[in-house]
Amino acid sequence: MPPRHEVATLCDLALMALGRLVVEFGRSLVAPTARLAARLDRASAQSYLHAMLRAMRAQLAASVPWHLYDRMALVALEAVSEHIARTTADRHRLQSQRFLHEMSVAVNLTRVVVHPHLKRIELSAWPRIMRHALYDSLAGMSGLEVLDLGSGSVGWRTSDIERLIVRALGRMRRLRSFTLCFDCTDQLIAALCRSCPRSLRKLDATASRSVTDRSVGYLLDCPQLREIRLSSTSVSPRGWAELLLRHPSLEDIGRYDELGRALELVRERNPAKRLFGLRSFECRHIGLEQLRLLVDTCPRISGLCILRDERVADLSMLAALSELRELKLLSCDFYAHGLGRLLEVCGGQLESLHLEHVGELDLQALVHVSQHCPRLRSLTFYNCEFLTAAEPRQLLQTSRLQVAPFLRLERLKCVVDCAEAHLEFVLSHCLNVRFIHLGSSTGVGDATMRRVLAKNRMAKLEELKIIYGAELSMATVHLLLRNCQRLARLSELESWDGISPPELDAFRQRVRDNNFKLDTSPTLSLA
Question: What's the alpha-carbon Rg for the chain, to the nearest Å?
């Protein structure tokens, strides 16, 4: 049986009560602000509202221990978000003036968590109407260490957002991570680097076209900066070459499709072989000579994602990367392009393998992966071409294999149209798997799951997501409950053809009645 919900701790109960307190406090302000607006003017009502919010903010800061402040802020913002949703749903039952007052108070409740005690905030997690209030209050979050502004206005109001953020950054001296996609600018990066030159570790300005080579000089003033993501910005290969040559701590540049060209510029400026400390990057356009240059100059890479260029006929050259731990390959063939040879050399050090649009995969290829990648913890197949063997069952006999297949595997994602035997081989041997995500064309059914669970009880499985199953029914659900003692999430049951709506409703009621800690809500996602 799945685990049961534990009794909430006093700390958790107190934090949940604080969320309700904030909402009730907001409701108590609606009538006074409405009366003030009617008797005097809107400015007086807003002044009263902000004074009361400041008082509540001070009360929360004085009552909540500093190490719990971030948790309290998250609970309070969730409660406010739900309150705004309920208020919006009730708008047809309220007079327009009353609705506007209630909504104004509800949105301004967002400001009660704004305090220097706050260490982390992610604006993209909240509705847009709340984000506006948080943007206005950024200057009050001077203690932030992680500021994630998400996609900003997606490039529509860059200048307006810039003014708000530049003013706030002048008060933030402890930022370690800053994220603003689409709306970041050279001026913002300059303000960020002036405020946090010693603490900043990560910058993500993806898709911000207003970030140019002028920002390179500012970034060089932050010696602790290890992760810089400038994909789809206006930073040129020449600017990247400058960063590579002069930044001592750069390790992760995310996706940058012109890295090969930047490395060529580096070689032109410094003919002597210069080794860089890059640890992780992703590139979709890199030629044969550029790939060789990458292997020669960046030997410490541990995470690599590349789309194979048609000029790269043999991927085994990547075996020279002795510290490689995470490998993601797109658009190649397992045998023809040397992937099998690559795994023979460096598979023993891999912990994550992601194959996307990879052809020539058969049962022998899966056995090859299992034998040469014994340390794999994560394995992904996405839109790959699986070949059916003439006698597929013969390879399922593993008594003669030297290494127990997939013994350390914890995550498996398979979004492919494959033969049943391929998936059954992997599922039957990953004894320590914790997360399994299967696409809509894997062909898995009740019979498959029955054979798999007879060999592998999946005692550590925590999450199973199967997007569609033409032959999956409640029989598989009951099997999982009997075998998987840690199962906490079982999603997309609505898409299992063998389960009727009444059966699903009855099962969910059973989960509630037994207090099982099992989430069966749909996600409609493979994330």
Answer: 27
Q: What is the mean pLDDT of residues 79-106?
A: 88
> What SS3 state is found at 226?
coil
Under the banding of pLDDT at 50, 70 and 90, the label for residue 152 is confident
Distance between CA 434 and CA 410 in Å, rounded? 5
pLDDT band at 394 (very low <50, low <70, confident <90, very high): very low
Nearest residue to 366 via CA among 334, 324, 332, 409:
334
* Separation CA 275–CA 297 (nearest Å): 5
**How long is the chain?**
527
Residue type, 147: L
pLDDT at 392: 47
Tokens at 420, concatenated: 């049943």
For 360-390, give one letter per residue: b (16+ CB within 10 A) or e.
bbbbebbbbbbbbbbebbbbbbbebbbeeee
- The whole-angstrom separation of Cα 301 and Cα 276 is 9
Which residues face 177 on adjacent strands?
A: 146, 202
Single-letter amino acid, residue 85: A
Residue 228: exposure state from Cβ atoms within 10 A (0-12, 13-18, ≥19) = buried
In this structure, what DSSP letter does residue 210 have? B
Global model pTM greater than 0.85: yes
Measured over the CA atoms of residue 46, residue 48, residue 49 and residue 51, the dihedral's sign is positive
Adjacent-strand bridge partners of 323: none
Q: Max alpha carbon distance in the chain (Å)?
A: 88
Q: Angle formed by the axes of helices 501-513 and 474-483, to 10°?
A: 20
Q: On the CB side of 359, how many CA atoms lie within 13 Å of its CA?
A: 6
Task: Locate 346 and state its tokens.
Answer: 């460096």
Integer CA distances (angstroms), 291 to 227, 326, 350, 352, in order: 21, 17, 20, 21
Q: pLDDT by residue (tens digit) across 239-296?
A: 999 999 999 899 999 999 998 899 899 888 877 677 888 999 899 888 888 899 889 9
Indicate the burial class of 185 (C-beta count within 10 angstroms; 0-12, 13-18, 19 or more).
buried
Three-point CA angle 201, 202, 207, nearest 5°: 160
- Taking the alpha carbons at both ends of the chain, their separation in whole angstroms is 26
